Amino acid sequence: MRCVDVTQLLKGVLDLAVLAALRHDDGYGYDILRRLRTAGLEDVGDASVYGTLRRLFQAGYLTTYVVPSDEGPHRKYYALNAAGRAHLDRSGKVWRGFVSTMDQLLDGTSA
């Protein structure tokens, strides 16, 4: 029997994870990737995070600004805006409800 494929789970929650990673501090692409991996999402791919950042920006949930760097190219930082914070709150509630339902199913306590 096949175990749960973490990469498939990541596809469904990467938007939420990236928004959560930006909740308290702005960050540039590699910094956000590092935060996600440090939090336990070791399987998240570079391209997935950068694509997610572009998509969330285009959806109006993030703002960007550029910071010069003495060590290489300028860094593009991403920040949550009001729409992004509202989306994070809504999505977080949906996620918590889903987790609660799955916990009940796995524990055998669902109706």
From TrEMBL:
Q: Which region is the signal sequence?
A: none
**Annotated Transcription regulator PadR N-terminal domain residues:** 18-89
- Note the superkingdom of the native organism: Bacteria
Q: Which PANTHER family match?
A: PADR-FAMILY TRANSCRIPTIONAL REGULATOR, TRANSCRIPTIONAL REGULATOR, PADR FAMILY
Record-given protein name: PadR family transcriptional regulator
- What gene does the UniProt entry assign to this protein? padR
